[in-house]
Each structure stands twice: as structure tokens, then as C-alpha cells.
Design goal:
The structure is a single chain. By secondary structure, this protein is α+β, with helices and mostly antiparallel strands. It has one domain. The chain is 43% helix and 15% strand. The protein is built from seven helices and six strands. The longest helix has 27 residues. The chain is globular, with a radius of gyration of 19 Å. The chain starts with a helix and ends in a 5-residue tail after the last strand.
Length: 288
């Protein structure tokens, strides 16, 4: 199980390295991971997993984007949501930092770190990664983007806020990626922006009054998404369903961490797709 979990985390890290009301306590969709018995070995493994994910992502970024670059530090402004990708890259920056924060936080809690330490080490490490990416871009042809960094900090800030405000855990950020020409290795995620969809999910069951909750399954959520089509020339909007994997609440620590990691991704489900200049279309499974 540990081996499968580490592979899952490293694969996710390679992906992100390329892109620059009252709530019932027992149904919180993203409650902090329970602290595990603290042993030196467990802490070493958790620290190593965080370091491997961070280091692997930075190394991947170097070879994908900066190798051979020799520019003086400079900034760039690509137009935010009217840029070459219609802003899908900006949403991706926000999700990247959100993903890193929750992953680092969950891994450190799995390793036995207390909540305060896990929370702030995760925030600091995710912020360090975001700044490092922009500094690397600033020394390459891409340029340091205050807009990109601002979206990174927004995603990180929202993830951090979720650990303080239980109500926010009813609204979670997810990502799906299904390229029409199939998956490749090594992946080049920014070559296929049309395959990205960024989702905000809503835990309907948890938001309903107590007497209405039995009518809505706990595992099923609503989701709204944003994507692009036709080589980033058309905006797309999505309304669909999402699976809340956290309802399974495994007690085994390794399995619980794996579920928490997978739940940061959107599993394709039925939905409605709207593309600029076209009629809305219902899809049994929304791939992209």
C-alpha cells in the first residue's frame, strides 16, 4: 500500500511541476487528517515523501522549461483571462498550490506531525514551490508573472482557510485531465490545455437541513467546471456530478491517505457541457 501511495504522489507531482451553517463533525468532506502515532521512522518517511514530491517537481520543471535558458530576470504580463489559454493556466496555478498544500498537509499528518506544524509547514512548502517556479520563469523566456503567483497564493490561501473554517470544506477544488489523443509519458500537460477541466465541487448532502439529508446520497456531489476547446479559442463551462470519496472513511492510515489524495481529482461523471457559440450538450460521461 505504501509503495502504491508513493507512486501516486510522485505522478501527481510530475503533473503539477509542469504548470507553471454548521457542519456535522462526522460528515466533514475535508476534515484535517487525524494525527497518527508519532515515531521517528514514520516522520522520516513523511518528510522524505514531501521532499521527493517537491524536489521531483522542481527537477521536472527545470528539464521541461528552463534547461539552457540564459535571460536576465524579467517579468511578463500575458493578459490574465484573455491570454493564450483563455485563463485556464491561471486556474491551473491556483489548483497547483491548493493540491500541494493539501497533499503536504495530509502526508505530514499521516507521519505524526501535529496539526499546527503540518498546516504551516505545508503552507510554507507550497508557497516556496510557487515562488521557485516564477523565479525560474523570470530567468527564462517566460518571465516572472505576478498574475500567476497571485493565483498560486489564492489557491494556497483557500486550502489553508479550509483547515480553519469547517464550512469551507463543503466546497472543494478538483481537476480532471483526459486528452483526446490519449495519455503519454512523459506527459506534457500544457500542450493539451483543451484536456483540462478545473472543478469546484459542492457537498449538497452536508448543506441540506437534517431532515432532508436522507434524500441526497452522501457520496454524490454537484460540481461546476471551467475549460477551453478548439485549441484554446473557446471557453467551456460544465455542470455535473462528482464523487465524494471521503464518505468511505477508511481507518487504515495508508489507505486513508490514498483516498484523500485521489479525492483531489475529479472522476469523470455525467454532466452538461456548454461551449462558446454552441448549444449546451448533455454527456453521460464528461471527459473533456
Amino acid at each position: 500500500m505504501k509503495r502504491a501511495l508513493i507512486v501516486c504522489l510522485l505522478l501527481a507531482g510530475h503533473a503539477w511541476g509542469q504548470d507553471t451553517l454548521a457542519v456535522r463533525q462526522n460528515t466533514l468532506p475535508r476534515r484535517p487528517m487525524p494525527v497518527q502515532p508519532s515515531t521517528p521512522l514514520r516522520r522520516y518517511i513523511a518528510t522524505g515523501m514531501v521532499g521527493a514530491l517537491l524536489g521531483g517537481s522542481l527537477v521536472s520543471s527545470y528539464f521541461d522549461w528552463w534547461q539552457g535558458a540564459d535571460r536576465k530576470f524579467h517579468t511578463s504580463d500575458d493578459g490574465m483571462f484573455n491570454n493564450y489559454s483563455l485563463g485556464i493556466d491561471k486556474v491551473g496555478h491556483a489548483y497547483t498550490s491548493y493540491f500541494y498544500f493539501h497533499t503536504f498537509h495530509n502526508v505530514m499528518r499521516w507521519g505524526g506531525y501535529d496539526e499546527h506544524s503540518a498546516r504551516w509547514w505545508a503552507a510554507g512548502t507550497a508557497a516556496f514551490f510557487a515562488v521557485s517556479i516564477e523565479v525560474g520563469d523570470g530567468l527564462s523566456d517566460y518571465g516572472f508573472s505576478f498574475g500567476d503567483l497571485g493565483f498560486n497564493m489564492a489557491g494556497l490561501g483557500y486550502g489553508l482557510a479550509q483547515t480553519y473554517v469547517p464550512f469551507l470544506r463543503n466546497f472543494n477544488f478538483k481537476w480532471s485531465y483526459v486528452p483526446l489523443d490519449g495519455y503519454r509519458w512523459p506527459p506534457r500537460f500544457t500542450d493539451h490545455y483543451d484536456a483540462h477541466i478545473y472543478w469546484m465541487t459542492v457537498n449538497v448532502h452536508n448543506l441540506l437541513p437534517d431532515d432532508a439529508r436522507p434524500w441526497w446520497p452522501e457520496f454524490l456531489q454537484l460540481a461546476v467546471g471551467y475549460g477551453v476547446d478548439d485549441h484554446q479559442t473557446r471557453r467551456e463551462g460544465f455542470i455535473g456530478l462528482d464523487l465524494n470519496l471521503r464518505v468511505f472513511r477508511p481507518t487504515q492510515p495508508d489507505l486513508r491517505l490514498l483516498v484523500q489524495t485521489v479525492d483531489l481529482f475529479h472522476i469523470p461523471m455525467p454532466g452538461i457541457k456548454t461551449t462558446g457559440g454552441r448549444s449546451p450538450r448533455y454527456q453521460w460521461i464528461v471527459w473533456n
